[in-house]
Amino acid sequence: MTETSTIQTSTRLTLSHNMQARSDLPQISHLEKHGYLFGKKLTASLSPFLHGVVYDKLAMNWGQVRYDSADIQEFLHLVQDPSFYGASVTMPNKVAIIPYLDQLTPEATAIGACNTIYLKTDESGRRLLCGANTDTIGVRDSFTQNLTEAQLQSTIYGRPGLIIGGGGAARSAIYALRTWLGTTDIYLVNRDAREVQAVIDDLRLSGFGTEGIMHVSSVEQAESLAEPGAAVGCVPDFPPKTEEEHVARQITEVFLAKTDKGTILEMCYNPSPYTELGALAERAGWKVILGTEALIYQGLEQDRYWTGYQLEQLPVQDVKKAIAAHLMSLSKI
């Protein structure tokens, strides 16, 4: 055994021993390599399940384990384990983790949030913690993998985009529509004008640019604008209750009713991917892409970082079938 491998084995044994003494920490001793889902309120997350399907189909003794915590320092200690391969990062840690990372991808920098940690090695052999935001890829690939090139050319590229919502998912959608899907103006529809302004301000500060990104705040304004081609729903599946929510829904309906139809990615999939917004769009003649597609493609992009396999080498159809079956089983409970 080389000196390096001896040190790595010793490090892992020490870390594993410390973890075994802490019943609140995830157990990893049965895995050849392990990753974390790092955040709070993780019980309902499908991330470990999705990655488990990938590793099972690739015959890899890898696994992602839940680490329900906002303790950045303890997380940074855990990732020193030589068998650590990377992490999915969720709220409230997506922004808080950034100062502790060695490198960020362009989309993580632009959005100001990291949902993926992967490893690189510098010239000296030091292991680097790198951050990415694969939510953007989830949006992009939901369109590119479900539409033909001809459909993208005729209905998406060169037309405005529509985003319903104003949170983190909206930021990822803006990046994907503007960077990869060739949209022109981007319309933001949301119940809270302050949230929309915060999105625009954050993108401006990051250097991404905000030209053509506008808050559509009235039915009259929506009626005056050109038809969007790509739309992304980034709100929970709740019926509108407040006056502001009703106005936002009316604005959305105006866009959906325009003559030239497009494709909407409805990001909400929990508890069901079949939402009221998706049904409205379908009745209006739009093609609807379920939110499970974004979940799947952002997760597969994470596995591309972690395993080195390209998308075409990953078990995409197996993951889709497993996620659909899992959600179906939940709907029967």
From TrEMBL:
Signal peptide: none
Cross-referenced PANTHER family: BIFUNCTIONAL 3-DEHYDROQUINATE DEHYDRATASE_SHIKIMATE DEHYDROGENASE, CHLOROPLASTIC (PTHR21089:SF1), SHIKIMATE DEHYDROGENASE (PTHR21089)
Protein name: Quinate dehydrogenase
Domain Shikimate dehydrogenase substrate binding N-terminal: 37-117
Taxon lineage: Eukaryota, Fungi, Dikarya, Ascomycota, Pezizomycotina
GO biological process: chorismate biosynthetic process; shikimate metabolic process
SUPFAM superfamilies linked to this entry: Aminoacid dehydrogenase-like, N-terminal domain, NAD(P)-binding Rossmann-fold domains
Family annotation (InterPro entries): Aminoacid_DH-like_N_sf, NAD(P)-bd_dom_sf, Shikimate_DH-bd_N, Shikimate_DH_fam
A Gene Ontology molecular function term of the record: shikimate 3-dehydrogenase (NADP+) activity
Organism from which the protein derives: Ophiostoma piceae (strain UAMH 11346) (Sap stain fungus)
